[in-house]
Amino acid sequence: xxxxxxxxxxxxxxxxxxxxxxxxxxxxxxxxxxxxxxxxxxxxxxxxxxxxxxxxxxxxxxxxxxxxxxxxxxxxxxxxxxxxxxxxxxxxxxxxxxxxxxxxxxxxxxxxxxxxxxxxxxxxxxxxxxxxxxxxxxxxxxxxxxxxxxxxxxxxxxxxxxxxxxxxxxxxxxxxxxxxxxxxxxxxxxxxxxxxxxxxxxxxxxxxxxxxxxxxxxxxxxxxxxxxxxxxxxxxxxxxxxxxxxxxxxxxxxxxxxxxxxxxxxxxxxxxxxxxxxxxxxxxxxxxxxxxxxxxxxxxxxxxxxxxxxxxxxxxxxxxxxxxxxxxxxxxxxxxxxxxxxxxxxxxxxxxxxxxxxxxxxxxxxxxxxxxxxxxxxxxxxxxxxxxxxxxxxxxxxxxxxxxxxxxxxxxx
Length: 413
Prior knowledge:
- By secondary structure, the chain is of the alpha/beta class.
- A hairpin with a 2-residue loop joins β12 (243-248) and β13.
- It is built from 14 helices and 15 strands.
- It folds into 3 domains: 45-77, no CATH class; 107-219 and 392-406, ATPase, nucleotide binding domain (Nucleotidyltransferase, domain 5), CATH 3.30.420; 226-385, ATPase, nucleotide binding domain (Nucleotidyltransferase, domain 5, 2-Layer Sandwich).
- It starts with a helix and ends in a 7-residue tail after the last helix.
- It has helices spanning 2-48, 54-61, 65-77, 141-159, 196-204, 213-223, 284-287, 289-298, 306-314, 318-342, 351-355, 357-371, 374-377, 391-406; strands at 81-85, 97-101, 107-113, 117-123, 129-136, 166-173, 176-177, 183-186, 191-194, 208-212, 233-237, 243-248, 251-252, 346-349, 381-384.
């Protein structure tokens, strides 16, 4: 009996210690998370309103002046933010200071990886594009990594920026990226469990971070595009398939394993067209760029890509117009499902959907309106990406910027 009591006491003590350890860890995690969130809010407040004062920054972010001062000290030491003090006015009190993003502090590289090509963009910390380069893609991980590295270095030379000013790189890939930053699966590239970020970090000597390409584009729309003041929206785009960037509650939603957003595999048509995932009737089997080109090929049309499809539609090609009308109806039904489920403020169309919008939306909107709850429909809009072809590489820029803000001191180091 004594032994049993001792065991119970030992278990209770272990439980209390475990609880205290969990509480301490939770407190530490929460404080770190809050610090990162506040740093990002301060930076983006300055980005959206150049010349804002610390007091004005406190007002629009809701962060107290003491915390603002601590964050600004770090950002100024990193060379990311510039403070300008106004000339004395003769009035009592401290002179006013205004805050700006330092365009000369460093540069970020954003990369969009596709099978055929790799699109690389350099930008300042404020998101101003400094240069753009496209290089051939590859199914070989080694060749693709080399193309990205050499392309970034070539673009730095092209725009006359020293390599040491590269502060970070973000890469958008057409596949599933886990929370560990590894590519779990990229079907179009036939990559499995690939550590592309690790290879590039070692090759470039700066931090490289990966994200699913559509999630990256959604983040870019929020930071640099048309959704800067929108906390809830869905970005839908894709080439070989269809992906969704679910920007909900002011942040991208990844799910517990980082794989959320595969909206292309919503089932629209029972026992419908076959999909690359092995199932039938998926959303992307009807509205992706690949699906549209496949339908046209089966109808005897030889369109090579979305620009040629658009050109044929503008010329009044009946087969192309009928194909796009059918794709538009399925697009409307898919967007209605997303709207009813998530009730976002807006749905943003990117990629080929945006390029073909004038032919897809006339059939899309009636289907969307007929299948979306009226209360949800009247409070949301369907819009086109403001970043267009730069959405994914600018998503890479946004990812690199986010990680830089979470890991201060990169430029000083």
